[in-house]
Task: structure prediction
Amino acid sequence: MAERQRILSGMRPTGRLHLGNLHGALENWVQLQNQYDCYFFVADWHALTTDYASPEAIRQNTWDMFLDWLSAGLDPQLCTMFIQSDIKEHAELYLLLGMITPLPWLERNPTYKEQQQQLDQKDLSTYGFLGYPVLQAADIIIYRANGVPVGKDQLPHIELTREIARRFNFMYKSEIFPIPDGLLTESPVLPGLDGRKMSKSYGNCIFITESEKEISEKISKMMTDPQRIRRNDPGDPEVSPVFAYHKLYSSPAQVEQIAEGCRTAGIGCVECKRILIRNVISRLAPIRERRLKLEGEIDKVKQIIADGAARARRESVITMELVRRAIGI
Result:
């Protein structure tokens, strides 16, 4: 039997996960764990690149994220889950890769100036923020990963990791690091409650472990087609955020019925939302139930985190021994 290829991915700990996280990444991870040797990590050091001045929430956010991962279906028997800062070898490789990474590679990173503009309320003129792509490269290649599941917008980051891995292999006449590919994953675009991108900073999220009451209240207030002012006004389902959710949570027959009903005013927005509420609650119920159970099994979750760190550390130690030998230190 051919050895499974290894993939790695991570998330910054921003707390409880919302439906955008679930459909944009987490559901894909749950599928990938059955096909690949998977390493998934909470990137708490990466959180410090933008939140170094207010790190108080990172520890709790890390815990919440781990619980949501397990609740959504990541299985510690099928994948390795760990916290970045538990594996100190990441920092060592980050340091060594920083020695060989040309400064212009970092300055031309498209996210660098973009995030500085978007997060202008924070001082991001730091070495850590400029150099975070090197830490990202270390995260990936320390496990000698063959691929990283990403969306198209993240491909430039993977290309920089590929360049750093090639440069190391060439400079030190080694083949330690496979050149990782970006595994393009199609993920549905799920708008927030107000039609904008779902984001905690916008306050427009539905979290994957919300109560039935919270889900019902949030969906009831969602915006719909702004042209449907009265019940008998025809609408366009494609401009309604509610319809985007129906495509994910309702059956094909329901989606067709709702689309036609919207266009002909055969169904009102209130009825449309009621159908969606039932479907979302039904779909998320198993995740919420697992989360509630895990909250009462703190020692079990801590052991899962410790076991994942032990497995990750074994691989990172092997890599760093090869790296030191190649460099000659």
Observations:
- The chain has a mean pLDDT of 92.
